[in-house]
């Protein structure tokens, strides 16, 4: 995983753990429907997400798909530590840096 991605991905995961849909200049807001699906999946999972620890980078993965990076970040819960949930994000390089698109949080 490229270390340049980590600060924004950590912020995104921490926003999700806090119950907020991540949105910033380089992180477009996901649709309300997508956010409803994400919160529903997390609620159905039945555990409380916590701040993303540094250990997540030991198991999270990324792969280049021609025009963008596909990233799966392992998420952590208060009880389990590393959970089965992942944050699915696409990262595209733009003229001003990287743009991060949150697709879903789910159990692969």
Report on this structure:
The protein has 108 residues and is α+β, with helices and mostly antiparallel strands. Helix content is 24%, strand content 34%. The chain contains two helices and four strands; from the N terminus they run ααββββ. The protein has a four-stranded antiparallel β-sheet with strand order 1-2-3-4. Strand 1 and strand 2 form a beta hairpin. The longest helix is centred in the middle third of the chain and has 14 residues. The chain is globular, with a radius of gyration of 13 Å.
Overview features:
alpha+beta, 4 strands, 108 residues, 2 helices, 34% strand, 4-stranded antiparallel beta sheet, globular
Weakly predicted, low-confidence segments: none
Approximately what portion of the residues adopt beta-strand conformation? 25-35%
Share of helical residues? 10-25%
- Gyration radius, to the nearest Å? 13 Å
Number of helices: 2
- What structural class do the secondary elements suggest? alpha+beta
Largest sheet, strands/sense/barrel: 4 strands, antiparallel
Strand order in the largest sheet: 1-2-3-4
Order of helices and strands: HHEEEE
In total, how many beta strands? 4
